[in-house]
Every structure is written in structure tokens, then in C-alpha cells.
Amino acid sequence: MVRRLDNCESYFERDGISLLSGKYRCYLQIGKKKLYSDRRATRDDIKSMAERSKSMPVKYLTVGDRNYWRYDSRWFTDSDGHDGDEVRSLVIAYDLRNEKKLSEAKTVAAAKRLPDGSLRESIPGAVRHSVWERDGGACRSCGNKSELQYDHLIPVSMGGANTVDNLQILCGPCNRRKGASVV
Ligand SMILES: [Zn+2]
After folding, report:
1. Domain boundaries along the sequence of the chain
2. Does the pTM exceed 0.70?
């Protein structure tokens, strides 16, 4: 399991020990939390880590049993001891999940909008009333009087309007059957 870290930045600094060796210690600032590595890196190490992290996850830090990876300008963490290839696969799976969620959210948002992008209006009260009167407060298909719904003959998504002529009363089961037969 790999988790994405937001508000994460790395920097390298010399400390007491690294002054002698000319090496740098890697720090990670995650929000208000600051972590640092026991390992020290040379200037060249740092350059090559940054370069490699563009195409592969690179382990920048290990703190306890937790690893911190930089990959494609993003930061990830895991505590399962994964190697770079595994982290890469997990990140790809993570991105796919997010893409799927995003397309689902877009579908829901689109269903709430008319084709021209404006928000779908609810059926005006007077129209509801006329339709109800005309259909006798019962399912127009089977006469049932429970679980009633206003149904658009031409769906709003296809340009159907909230007018008396384009609306009818259907019970839930008839409406679902209609929905299924349209598809
Ligand atoms: Zn019915």
C-alpha cells in the first residue's frame, strides 16, 4: 500500500558529520513535519536521484520502517518494504483508481446539467400539479398508486423539457422497466 504525500518538499543540508565528508543530509518537510535521513548523499548523488525520479520511484528517505519515495515530481510513502518497481506499479494503480473516480464524478455532474452546461431545473410546481391531475395520481402504465415518480417522455439529457406534455407519472417498477428498455 502506497500513500501519496501532499505538501511535501525535500532539501539537502550539510550537518556536523556531513561537513567532514562533504556530504549532505536529506530532509523532508511534510506539512509541518520535518524528517531527515541517516544516510548522507554527495552532490552527484542528489543530482542523479532527482534525474532518476523522473522515470522511476527513488527512495529518498527511510525513517523507521517507512520509506519515502519521489517519483514524477510527487512524493509517496510505504511501510511494506516495497522496491522501486513495486512502488511504480502501486502508483500506476493509484492513478488509475483516481482517474476512474474522476470520470464517475464527471458523469454524475453531467447528469445534473443540461447539454448546454446549465444546471437542470426542477419541475415547476404548477406543471407537477397538472400532470398529477391529468394522470389521476396513478401510474400511467399500470395504475399503481405507490412509489410514484415524474417521468420525462423525452429524457432531459436528450433535450426533453419540464412541460406537461413531456411528463407522465410512473411507478418505480414501471419507470425502471422503461429505463431498462431504453438501453
Ligand atoms: Zn406502474
Report:
1. 3-108, 125-182
2. no
